[in-house]
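for the writeup, i need someone to sanity check this before i put it in the appendix. the sequnce is what the collaborator sent (i think, or maybe the updated version? ugh). structure was predicted straight from it, no edits. if anything looks off just tell me and ill rerun, i have time this weekend
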Amino acid sequence: MIHPTAIVHPRAELAEDVEVGPYSIIGENVEISRGVKIDSHVRIEGWTRLGENCRVFSFAVLGEAPQDLKYKGEPSELIVGPNNVFREFVTVHRGTAEGGGRTVIGANNLFMAYSHVAHDCLIGNHVIMANAATLAGHIEIQDHAIIGGLAAVHQFVRIGAYALVSGLTGVPRDIPPYALAAGNRARLYGLNLIGLKRHGFSSETILHLKRAYRILFRSHLPLSKALERVSREIPSFPELERLVEFLRTSRRGVCR
C-alpha cells in the first residue's frame, strides 16, 4: 500500500492498511492509524498522530515545526482524531512548549484547500474551514463551527460552537456560540439561523436564543449587566448555559 517512490522512515508506525501515494514523505516519529489514505506529494513530520480513516490530499503538510520565533526545536505534538479530511496544500503545525506542546484536532472535520492551522490550536468536531481560511496560534474552534474562505483569526481567539464566520473576515475577538459574524473586522449579524435549523435545534430553543441575543448584543448594556438580565428573564437551558459560560470566560473580549 506504500508507493515505491514514497519515503517512510523505518521508525514511523503505520497500520497495515495505510495507503501512501507517490513521492510522499513520512517522518520518524509519525503514527498513522488504520484506514488512512495519503495521496501523492504529502509531507507528515514531527511527533504526529493521525487517527483512523483520515484522508490527506496532495501537497498537504502536517506536523511541521511551528512558525513561532520562540520555538527552539523542542519535541511537540500534532494529535489528529478520526475521519478528518485535509485537502490540497493544507498546513497544520504542531504545538510549542509555551502553548502546552500540542496542536489537537478532533473528529470529522473538513479542511479545504490552502487552509492553515497554526501551533497550539484546539479544533473540535465537525468543523469546516473553507479555502485559505487561516488560524493564528493558540486558537480554539468549538464543535460545528464554520470558518469562511480567506477569513483570518487572531491568536488566542475562540470561535464558539455552531458559529459561522463569513469569508474575508478578520476576527480579532471571540465569536460567541450560534452567532453569525462578518466584516473587515468581525461584527455580529445575528444568529446562525440556517445552521441551527440544519442541526435540528427546536423552534423553542431558537426563539429563546434570539431573546438572549437581543439582550446581550443589542441592548447596549455592559456585558455584565446584560448577563444578569438574561439570567432573570430567560429560563435556563443547555444551549443558553453554553453561551453564557462562553461569554463569562472570554479573555480577549467578545465581538458584539
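The domain at 200-248 is CATH 1.20.1180.10 (Udp N-acetylglucosamine O-acyltransferase; Domain 2). The chain has two domains: 7-195, 200-248.
thx in advance!!
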